[in-house]
Automatic annotation (TrEMBL):
Enzymatic class: transferase
Listed name of the protein: histidine kinase
CDD domains linked: HATPase, HisKA
Coiled coil (residue ranges): none
Biological source species: Pseudoalteromonas denitrificans DSM 6059
Length: 500
């Protein structure tokens, strides 16, 4: 059986509260008993002394023990709350009035008696109960001396013993315990039980109030788990932002964590969808040149096919171009996968940016001349030093220039512009080409996204160049921006660190 936190707290509270009430009741009864004994002992402190002084049998000394026993019997009839004993100086009980077998002790300890006679401040003082071997009671005591006449003057003689008076004797205890059990104890128990129930209910309500947020949090966690962290199926509670309430802090932290997990799940699903789409596109791009390659090779390999030398050369040229396209696409796939793996190291070094740009432009000069496109570097004297990974920066610039050549028509121009700004070197690659539609700009850096201006070039590139460039710049702690106007051209811009 599962027990909730509230039930555990309530059960623990009941046990602890019951023990505390029991201890308090026991302590209060003990204190009441001590207070009562102290009051009665103080009230009857001189009882034994007055009896010794006022009674002839004791005033003159004890000589007739039978008469003293009768006196004790008479006094007990008049005061049933008292028991009277006469003990000798060693503590042996000599005279008392009781039925045979009632008195269990033959002697008492005189130390409490002497303490009461000599130092009566620290009351209550308990002495041996002659009628019970294991019980102590409050008492009154006084010494009894023999008196001698010398020349008509009475002098105190030898110590004969002590008058030992038990306050609250056996009869008193019996009657008092019956009354107490039938009246006071019942009332006290009733009030105590009522107070216990009332306080217990109050504490249960308080526990319910304090544990409600925990129960609410537990239910919310269960709902979130059942919904697989899909926030569209679960409404998160708004927890007050109290710095002193740990449950509310936990609830707010849980909301932050759940939202983060939800975002991560959506991102993973989005990435998974993009990867599936990428694989679909790549399989298509791989299948097309492979099918063409296979077809031309089968024609060239067919024994009954009669081809002249020019046709064979043409077929071989097409086959070689398909092979190059396959290699270029596969290289891009591996390069992008390597960049996405997160295991790419950066090797920064100081070099002249102008020299690198002129070297890169030189690689594309022949291709630009064939396309009748002008390549321009601004400023012409591009003397800037930078601290960067030269290989990765060269790859980015090559991709951007190649992309610009692909989309720039004849008599167009591609400009590589460099200038310093806020301790950074800003590099811009602009063209006068076809441009990009405004609604497509946000997607051009996605792997395998092909803008509408790429129509007619599907066989010349794999569509991964801009995605690779963006990832390379992220590794270099930079970002790429694009500004384009459809039909007029495009400008790509990024910045790198300038060396002093």
């Amino acid at each position: 059986m599962k027990i909730s936190l509230y039930q555990k707290l309530a059960f623990s509270l009941f046990i602890i509260f019951s023990l505390i009430c029991t201890l308090v009741l026991s302590w209060s009864q003990q204190l009441d008993h001590i207070s009562q004994n102290q009051a009665e002992q103080k009230l009857h402190l001189n009882l034994a002394e007055h009896l010794v002084q006022d009674n002839p049998l004791l005033q003159q000394g004890v000589y007739d023990h039978q008469a003293l026993e009768n006196l004790f019997h008479t006094l007990m009839l008049l005061g049933p709350a008292f028991e009277f004993y006469f003990v000798d100086p060693s503590g042996e009980i000599l005279t008392y009035s009781a039925k045979p077998g009632k008195v269990k002790r033959k002697r008492i300890n005189l130390s409490p008696v002497l303490q009461l006679i000599e130092h009566a401040e620290n009351m209550p003082i308990y002495g041996d109960d002659p009628r019970n071997l294991n019980k102590l009671k409050i008492f009154s005591a006084a010494p009894v001396y023999s008196h001698e006449d010398q020349d008509g003057i009475k002098n105190r003689g030898k110590l004969q013993g002590y008058l030992y008076v038990i306050i609250g004797g056996e009869i008193y205890d019996t009657v008092f315990s019956r009354i107490k059990s039938n009246d006071t104890l019942l009332i006290t128990a009733s009030w105590l039980f009522a107070a216990l129930i009332f306080l217990f209910i109050i504490l249960l309500l308080l526990f319910k109030y304090f544990t409600n947020p925990i129960n609410k949090l537990a239910k919310e966690i269960s709902q979130i788990q059942a919904a697989n962290f899909d926030l569209s199926k679960v409404q998160l509670s708004q927890w007050p932002k109290y710095q002193s309430n740990e449950v509310h802090l936990l609830g707010n932290s849980l909301n932050v964590i759940v939202r983060l997990i939800h975002q991560q799940i959506n991102l993973l699903e989005q990435n998974d969808s993009q990867r599936r789409e990428l694989l679909t596109h790549l399989s298509h791009d791989l299948r097309t040149p492979l099918a063409s390659l296979q077809g031309y090779l089968e024609i060239l390999n067919h024994q009954n096919t009669k081809l002249d030398e020019q046709q064979q050369q043409e077929y071989l040229t097409i086959t070689l171009n398909n092979c190059k396209q396959l290699k270029h696409l596969i290289d891009q796939i591996f390069e992008l996968a390597h960049l996405e793996s997160g295991r790419v190291s950066v090797n920064n070094e100081m070099f002249n940016l102008g020299e690198l740009i002129y070297d890169i432009v030189a690689k594309f000069t022949l291709k630009a001349q064939k396309a009748n496109v002008k390549l321009t570097i601004k400023p012409t004297v591009c003397d800037f030093n930078t601290l960067c990974d030269i290989a990765k920066l060269e790859r980015v610039l090559s991709n951007l220039i190649e992309n610009a050549l692909r989309h720039t028509p004849e008599n167009g121009e591609i400009i590589i512009n460099v200038f310093a700004k806020n301790s950074k070197l800003v590099i811009q690659v602009s063209d006068t080409g076809t441009g990009i539609k405004a609604e497509e700009i946000n997607y051009i850096f996605d792997a395998r996204y092909r803008a509408s201006n790429a129509v007619g070039h599907k066989k010349q590139h794999g569509g991964l160049g801009l995605a690779i460039s963006k990832r390379l710049l992220q590794i270099l702690n930079s970002d790429i921006k694009v500004h384009s106007e459809f039909g007029k051209g495009t400008l790509f811009e990024f910045s790198i660190r300038q060396a002093a």
